[in-house]
Specification:
The structure holds 2 protein chains of 2 kinds. Chain A is mainly α. Chain A has helices spanning 4-16, 21-28, 32-45, 59-73, 80-105, 110-130, 137-152, 157-160, 167-181, and strands spanning 48-51, 54-57. Chain A starts with a helix and ends in a 7-residue tail after the last helix. By secondary structure, chain B is of the alpha/beta class. In chain B, the strands form 7 sheets. In chain B, strands 14-24-23-16-17-18-19-15 form an 8-stranded mixed sheet. In chain B, strands 26-27-28-29-30-31-32-33 form an 8-stranded parallel barrel, surrounded by 6 helices. In chain B, strands 1-2-7-5-6 form a 5-stranded antiparallel sheet. Chain B is elongated and about 110 Å long. The mean pLDDT of chain B is 89. Chains A and B meet through helix 5, helix 6, helix 7 and helix 9 of A and helix 10, helix 18 and helix 19 of B.
Chain lengths: 188, 822
């Protein structure tokens, strides 16, 4: 099974589908050199593909990531606290997407943005709470907070642009992540 | 004596602008509505002075508490109700800073009930027409809505959890309507809060104090602090608290709630537009659970109310000088205005409304220009399907248009294959059953996205909108076979790679490639608006055309001149492109023969003459090809070029024939206002040398484009010798910041470094005395901040591409006022 740090890097590529090492380092808050070391090893072992500076996972890489999820979180799908957390996330997922959609179709209405941030703030709090079960989930909370501060500062792109570490993008990545934790990944 | 901390809205109506900060945006907005003569539910505001004495305090000061008490009594008198009594006066509590900022406390509604008054409210509402159970249900909903909001906003707990936890107690109270069950529900709220580790007073007066303190606390929330730091908003401005009597659209028969637009927000047409729900509250309107009546046909309003509303909209438009969105409630036949603000509108409506408001004398032409944004102008001019081709195109399937725009390409059924084909330069439409985050690569590179399943909130729809790409979702008529790489519509099967055209607005997917054209603004409101902009603008706008067709299309924008016309563009676009490429290669190989020079001269003259003849005597600035530019390499292979050819004046055998060609074409077209521009220079000496060449040639003026810092710094010494100097904004920004050529100059990047700023100002000043025309041309001039910065530096000549010219016209018109204001 992958070591924790190796998993973090490969998982980040798995969730993003395609990413540059610098992006992975920024998102994980890891030194670029550490990420590059894991990537180099991954390329060596055939788990990672380098598409001219952009990284992708080969099937061996995806399998390794999913195996880590299975081994590490096998018991969590039945854990009541985790289950409640997951169900609450699914319940708020559709309203969240609707809010993003409202924000987009209203051409960036301030009130719509404020509602999005309220949901994200609450979710970040829930992520901190559940980090007793999955410590790395606190990392998602910090990412949400970083991006939210930029959104508040007027960087509208960071609400939903899929090319950036936008609120919507973090949300989507987290969704894929929690699906894998609960043993129902999209790409199984 | 102390200055009052609490003010009635009626008393701040006439307040001077300087003290407006003390009362915040919400309260001054309400006061403004009163001034406009519309009925606003009574309200009072706690000023920032109170914030300053209470910041960080655990409880309200005696003075503040006393003043709030007196103001509450006044609300009771005005509304003929009793706070925590019967008939119940309920209030809303809102934060209100001078600048609205994220992280500040949301509104708490329906504050003012305890078990006793909620019970009485239920009986009273039931007697009013809702029926006894309806009355109880209304009272319970009102009360629990308060508790959910109070839990979330004041106590930072979970409102949904609270509702869930008290659901049984609520059901019991609803069944019996008895006072005892209301008391039990109140106990159940306390227990549920305790389970979340929270505690709250049951006395509404104490709840009000807590809500006020929560507003003050929210000024120091993490988000609000970060926002102030980033925007350099003083930390000690402070916030106000606005407390307003609630009115109810579901109390009594002659009541209801509505949202009205003073004009149609889709088309801009001058007609009262919106919805009204009789006997209901605002949240019913939002939830869409009940179908409201259409206000344009009366909306089921009583005639007197309808008339009052119409009269008020006209008055309000005059006060606010814009089309408005109005939240209104009718309580027992009396019309109240809850909120008035500028209405959201489409680009088309924005232009129509601006022109109409000016026509009606509501705003001046100058103000009308400010009611439209560059983005809206650009959206109106986005590329669309060619109407003739579209008329005969076959509609293959129709789904939900979820991200507007028109685009055409070959259909690919897999994100990775789509990305590969798009990387090869093909226009690709990504056609998928649905999309998920795993398809992101394909979505980024596709020109349009179509899915067979999913609605307006699907992944495909949301991501496409973020990417600003046409998208149609839920095309259920399309059956996709991912294994066979085919898709089937109405019994016919198409292979992957079939061409599709996608209209993200109508949701139609057409077979084949429908050509896309850039709309020209014809007659109509946009042209009128832009003409107003032109008449106020104090700058000259040139248009950088790339072809004869562009020049023709640019005509109605009435440009001050045509420039910078690139001779290379004309040569490459002409039928003799290959001959030109051959000649260029010969030059690069060192051929300086007379035959080659004559050939070059002939080609250039043929390419330029039709354009000069077309524009008659209008000014034209022609830029000569620059062999050292990166773009020259696109025409032919530059690998073997001798290095001296990279210098602007390094190859007389190349430069002289081209210059003669420009002179010949100008002579033939009888145009005396043609300027030849040299590109890529780095010193005033080069510019002066070029000017001498032009003088020798006769019939032309000389000028230069400035693409680098060296040229910009030295150009002032050359102003005597030339008649035009164009600063190339895109090149200067890229070279000074080090942005690679392929990175677009978005809002964040289109900025001038301070050192560049100084050089531009110096050049403009130096040129002011003489006859030389200094202008700025190139990328980024559709960006309001950059254009405005250049305008402030004294730049008055600009040249943009045809596509961004209309937006730049608007901006220049808007800026004219700013200059006069100085």
């Amino acid at each position: 099974m992958l070591a924790e740090n190796d998993f973090l890097v490969l998982n980040s590529i798995y969730l993003k589908k395609m990413a540059a090492p610098a992006t992975v380092a920024e998102v994980l808050g890891l030194p670029l050199a550490d990420v590059e070391r894991v990537v180099a090893a991954g390329i060596e072992s055939g788990e990672v593909l380098d598409m001219g500076g952009q990284l992708m996972l080969d099937s061996a890489g995806s399998e390794a990531v999913l195996e880590f999820y299975q081994q590490t979180y096998a018991g969590l799908a039945a854990d009541p606290e985790m289950l409640a957390f997951y169900q609450r996330f699914e319940a708020v997922n559709t309203p969240f997407i609707k809010l993003v959609s409202d924000w987009q179709t209203s051409e960036g209405d301030e009130r719509a943005k404020e509602k999005i941030c309220k949901v994200v703030e609450k979710h970040a709090k829930a992520l901190d709470d559940i980090s007793s079960r999955i410590p790395r989930y606190a990392g998602y909370a910090r990412r949400f907070e970083r991006t939210m501060a930029k959104v508040d500062a007027g960087e509208r792109e960071l609400v939903s642009n899929p090319r950036l570490d936008s609120l919507h993008n973090i949300w989507f990545e987290f969704h894929e992540d929690v699906l894998a934790v609960m043993g129902r990944p999209r790409e199984a | 004596m102390h200055e009052a901390l609490v003010w009635d809205i009626a008393d701040i109506a006439g307040i001077d602008a300087a003290s407006a900060g003390k009362f915040g945006g919400k309260a001054t907005g309400l006061a403004r509505m009163r001034v406009a003569g519309v009925a606003v539910p009574p309200a009072f505001v706690i000023s920032t002075d109170a914030f300053h004495v209470s910041r960080g305090a655990k409880e309200l000061s005696a003075q503040l508490r006393g003043e709030v008490e007196r103001a509450l009594r006044r609300l009771e008198t005005e509304s003929a109700r009793k706070f925590a009594g019967d008939p119940a006066l309920l209030v809303s509590v809102r934060s209100g800073a001078q600048v609205s900022m994220p992280g500040m406390m949301d509104t708490v509604l329906n504050l003012g009930l305890d078990a006793a008054s909620a019970h009485l409210l239920g009986q009273r509402a039931g007697a009013g027409g809702a029926g006894s159970t309806g009355g109880v249900e209304f009272a319970l909903d009102t009360w629990l809505r308060f508790w959910a909001m109070y839990t979330e906003i004041v106590l930072a707990g979970d409102g949904d959890d609270l509702r869930e936890a008290v659901a049984d107690a609520r059901a019991a109270a609803l069944r019996s309507g008895a006072r005892a069950d209301f008391d039990a529900l109140e106990r159940s709220v306390t227990t549920a809060l305790a389970a979340q580790g929270l505690e709250a007073p049951l006395d509404p007066r104490l709840q009000l104090d807590q809500a006020i303190l929560a507003v003050f606390r929210s000024w120091d929330s993490r988000r609000a602090r970060a926002y102030r730091e980033h925007h350099r908003i003083p930390d000690d401005l402070g916030t106000t608290v606005t407390i307003q009597a609630m009115v109810f659209g579901n109390l009594g028969a002659r009541s209801g709630t509505g949202v009205a637009f003073t004009r149609n927000p889709n088309t801009g047409e001058r007609v009262l537009y919106g919805e009204f729900l009789a006997g209901r509250q605002g949240e019913d309107l939002v939830s869409g659970a009940v179908t409201p009546a259409d206000l344009s046909s009366g909306g089921g309003l009583e005639p007197a109310v309808h008339e009052a509303l119409l009269a008020a909209t006209t008055r309000l438009e005059h006060v606010y000088k814009d089309a408005l969105d109005i939240e209104l409630t009718v309580e027992d036949g009396k019309l109240f205005f809850l909120q008035v603000r500028p209405a959201k509108r489409t680009a088309q409506a924005a232009v129509q409304i601006a022109v109409d408001l000016a026509g009606e004398g509501v705003v001046t032409q100058e103000q009308a220009l400010r009611l439209v944004s560059v983005e809206q102008v650009n959206r109106l001019l986005q590329p669309t399907f060619d109407a003739t081709a579209l008329a005969t195109a076959k509609v293959l399937a129709t789904g939900t248009g979820s991200s507007p725009g028109n685009a055409a390409g070959v259909a690919l059924l897999d994100a990775d294959r789509a990305a590969e084909r798009a990387a090869g330069g093909e226009a690709v439409v990504l056609l998928r059953p649905t999309t998920s985050p795993l398809d992101i690569r394909g979505m980024l590179t596709a020109c349009a996205i179509v899915t067979a399943r999913g609605g307006a909130l699907s992944h495909a729809a949301v991501v496409s909108r973020a990417l600003d790409k046409p998208c149609v979702v839920g095309c259920e008529a399309i059956a996709i076979d991912l294994q066979a790489r085919t898709f089937t519509v109405a019994g016919q099967t198409y292979p992957e790679g079939t061409a599709l055209s996608v209209d993200g607005e109508t949701g139609r997917v057409y077979a084949g490639l429908v050509p896309v054209t850039t709309a020209r603004s014809g007659a109509g409101p946009l042209d009128r608006l832009l003409q107003w902009a032109d008449s106020r603008s104090r700058a000259a706008l040139w248009i950088t055309s790339r072809s004869l067709a562009d020049v023709e299309a640019a005509k109605h924008a009435a440009p001050a001149g045509h420039g910078i016309i690139s001779l290379s563009d004309l040569l490459v676009a002409s039928s003799t492109a290959q001959a030109f490429a051959d000649a260029l290669e010969a030059v690069w190989k060192g051929d300086t023969s007379l035959a080659l020079q004559q050939k070059l001269e002939l080609l250039a003259e043929q390419a330029l003459t039709p354009l000069l003849e077309h524009v008659k005597g209008e000014a034209v600035d022609v830029r000569l090809p620059n062999l050292g530019s990166s773009r020259a390499g696109l025409v032919a292979d530059a690998a073997a070029m001798p290095p001296q050819l990279l210098l602007p004046l390094g190859s007389p055998a190349f430069l002289h024939p081209l210059l003669r060609a420009v002179a010949q074409a100008a002579k033939r077209a009888e145009n005396e206002q043609v300027t030849a521009l040299i590109a890529g220079v780095t010193s005033a000496a080069e510019i002066a040398a070029f000017a001498r060449l032009v003088t020798d040639c006769g019939g032309l003026r000389a000028g230069a484009t400035l693409e680098n810092l060296a040229a910009l710094e030295d150009a002032a010494s050359a102003i005597e010798s030339v008649s035009a100097l164009w600063i190339d904004s895109g090149e200067i920004i890229r070279t000074t910041h080090g942005f690679p050529p392929e990175v677009p100059l978005g809002d964040q990047r289109a900025t001038l470094l301070p050192s560049v700023h100084r050089l531009v100002v110096d050049l403009v000043r130096a040129a002011a005395a003489g006859s030389v025309r200094v202008g700025v041309a190139g990328e980024g001039l559709g960006n309001a901040a950059l254009l405005s910065a250049l305008h402030e530096m004294g730049c008055r000549n600009f040249s943009t591409s045809l596509t961004s010219a209309q937006g730049t016209r608007l901006l220049l018109g808007q800026m004219a006022k700013e200059v006069r204001d100085d």
